[in-house]
Amino acid sequence: MISFIGVISFSGFLNVSVKLLMSILLSGSLGGFIGLVDDLFKLNKRTLVYLTLLIALPVITFRAGSTVVYLTPWGPRDLGLFFWLIVPFVFAYLTNSVNIYAAVNGLEAGLGFVTSFSLGVCALIYGSLEAALSLFTLAGSLLGFLYWNKYPSKVFPGNIGTYFIGSVLAASIIAGVIKLAGVIATFPYFINFVLRLKHRFKPTFARKTMDGLIYSERVDALFAYPIHGKPRSEKQVFLFCLMVQVFFGFLAVSFSWYHALLVKGAPVLLGGYP
Q1: Shortest CA distance to 262 belongs to which of 141, 125, 64, 152?
Q2: How many domains does one find in the chain?
């Protein structure tokens, strides 16, 4: 988190919008702060959800991003004020989705790295340098953290880490005008959210066999799918979830590339029109 703030702070040397960067930085910092408060005081779930709605305030007050939504059944539509009304719920959903998709060592950092890196490429394709800078900085920070967080983990991100990741992702998706790519890249989080919702967000955990393998008696989370009645190592579970995330990250980049070709004639990073 400190490295992320440091790099973004020095971005003034680049020809980017300070307003967009500031909105992403403030939302990310606010998300991290709420996660820290939860780590220290163990807030109840309802209070935590209400607080995560507030993470969207910097993006809303700065009017960071576009209210136009493409590829609707009726073509591009400008949602206007309604768009800003639903933004807080987007933040609450994504920050909490990232937070509950944590079960094995390295999962939060690994998935966050793949998601932020792929969305950073999408932002470059669309010419959103501010979102790309924020996402690539987050990806680099998580890659460094993953060295210590991988199995067997020496450090853990805690809620301060997961809420920070979710906040930066949400802010970058909104401010970087990569909404559809964001939906695709974060779809595994949605699948996990639905599975957890189906079981009313009850605590999910894996049982361990005598030889150190883990298994689950029910599929109440995405990570539980490969170990449902099939004991596997924690590393195998991590790789399964990572590959799922890579697949959807690749889909997001592919969609952005071909969408840019259709709308702009060429992706901005190849000289297309911004």
Answers
A1: 125
A2: 1
